[in-house]
Amino acid sequence: MRRKLLCWPVLVLLPVLVATGCLTTTAVPSPPERTGGTPRYPPPLAPDQPVTIRFESYLLAMAGPNRNAQLRLLEEFSRRFPAITVETKATPAGEIAASLRTQVAAGTPPDLAQAGLGDWDRVVESLGPVPLDQIVPPDELAAHLGGAFPFHPRALALTRREEKLYGLAWNFSTPTLFFNASLLREAGLDPDRPPRTWDEVKAMGLQVAQHTGQPALYIACLEWDWCAQALLLSNGGQLLSPDRRQLRWTDPANLEVYRFWQELVRSGVHARLRDAEAAEAFAAGKLAFYLQSSVYQATLIAASRDKWELRSAAMPAFGSRPVRPTNSGAGLAIFATDPVRQRAAWELMKFLTSPEAYVIVTRDMGYLPLRTGIVNDERYLKGWPQLFLLQPNLQQLDHLEPWTSYPGDNSLQILSIFLKTQEAVVLQGADPERSWREAQERAERLLP
Questions:
Q1: How many Cβ atoms sit within 10 Å of the Cβ of residue 43?
Q2: Element (H or E) spanning 183, and its range?
Q3: Which of 78, 162, 203, 333 could form a disulfide with 129 if both were Cys (CB 3.0 to 4.6 A apart)?
């Protein structure tokens, strides 16, 4: 069988466009033409109708299980649709928004792209993805989103803006507390009673640290804001005002989180590491607790096998307040303007969000199956031995809060200020109130 996976050259970024945000609007795609009052949608492709589409993905830029799983999905799609050739472009997650912006400005966007859910407002406002209801007849779209294994409504809401569905959420997680059950036993703790609150995490972490002489915890929320947002929201904090015109970084509830997080570091419970170093330390069995995206699940399963016992729990709460998890990950958006390529891109999107594809997305990548019903079906994930690791994450999906993005062309600069301030407070001991007040004042000058 001939593989139809090609690559197109990486485009040179336009620094002026990206840095200044000169591209602020893109023409919104026109609705389907009408014939006798009926919208005219791109017709289904004939089985032997050749078409080439371009697909941009950050999973292809990740070494290891994620890339391999993505390639297997594309190979299976090629087998099912031999007339559709898929050219691929691998772009790191942190660069994909700028890459899309550059290609849209040049008039050469990919036909289908994986776009970060934290960038979704900016993607819709500035890049002009085609709403699915302009490509897909209502009955076909409803059939794909529903059926025996319907999309979770919280997942569908992530890509909907002003009652239009601008793509589909595809791969994401909520914060998961992985823990080393073997290390807890060695420290005299019961792994069958994992911590439910952050105070319990601190108490158990202190006991482990006293036993090992090493830090016991790492909260992997320092280098990406999606996870940090979950911490702040779960303590009753906010990042933006409801009208998205003012920052709320200095809210007392937010400062309370950072004082507590800072104390975890000072007490020796929380490791002073970068994310990559913490991932290695937990995989090596040196940390007891690790709050992280479930995407690391496959790596952790392999690292712990026959060495230590890996388990997971829900994100801890701040006292009696409800946990409000946010999502990581990305959605799939169509940028094709040609009707034939639009239809081919939709076929690829349909396949990648099918129950069969979600088995691989979950089992081999570690992301949530957004068609949650497949975990109860033996044809899909019911018999998967590691399903228990995903259960806390699945339960949190019912309480999902969207990953908040900052408005305007300076959103990335605002995010940079947030992350730098967070690291200075948590790892370097900077005064939380003064640091966040100064950061908020600088960032607010960048708001539209």
A1: 10
A2: helix 181-186
A3: 333
